[in-house]
Amino acid sequence: MDVRELYQELILDHGKRPRNFRVLNAATHTAHGHNPLCGDKLVLHLVLDDGGKITDAAFQGAGCAISVASASMMTELLKNKTRDEAQKLFTYFHALATGETTPAFPLNDTDTARLQALSGVRNFPVRVKCATLAWHTLKAALEGATTTSTEGA
Fold it and tell me: Would you say 96 and 132 are in contact if contact means Cβ atoms under 8 Å apart?
């Protein structure tokens, strides 16, 4: 199987069967994200413990397969990360999706490969906002904001 086909399968799988697609009633941080360009919307829920570790992450919303897949993969990666690691993960993914130089981040090879599946959006500027919506919503939630938009991001 071609690597591009594998990545496509990963995106389709997460888009059709998103992980962590649920309400987190015990959320300590919640933010609403919106991509006005295409109408994607999501709500991100995080549970951070007293030490700043993300013990659970979930989302709800509606959007294209890339937007949903990105949110699904992100919530899987966030679990057991510290607030600082999550912020670094945002920086890493944003650079990956936009074609900027990606900073070093100590992800394991499996996590890095999963994020690479979404790196192709950098060749389609309109799709970058789809892939980064969940990540901008993460950044907003960690900063204590309740809403964010991909406009101006």
Answer: no
What's the number of domains the chain is made of? 1
Q: DSSP secondary-structure letter at 45?
A: E
In a domain, 152, yes or no: no
In a domain, 141, yes or no: yes
Q: Is the pLDDT at 102 greater than 90, yes or no?
A: no
Give residue-wise pLDDT tens across range 52-90: 999 999 999 999 999 999 999 999 999 999 999 999 899
Q: Which residue has the tokens 């993969």?
A: 73
Taking only the tens place, the pLDDT of each residue in 80-99 is 999 999 998 999 999 999 99
CATH number, domain of 89, equals 3.90.1010.10
Q: Which residue range(s) make up the domain with 28?
A: 3-146
Tokens 């970058």 belong to residue: 128
Three-state SS for 42?
A: strand
Q: Distance between the two ends of the chain, CA-based, in angstroms? A: 35
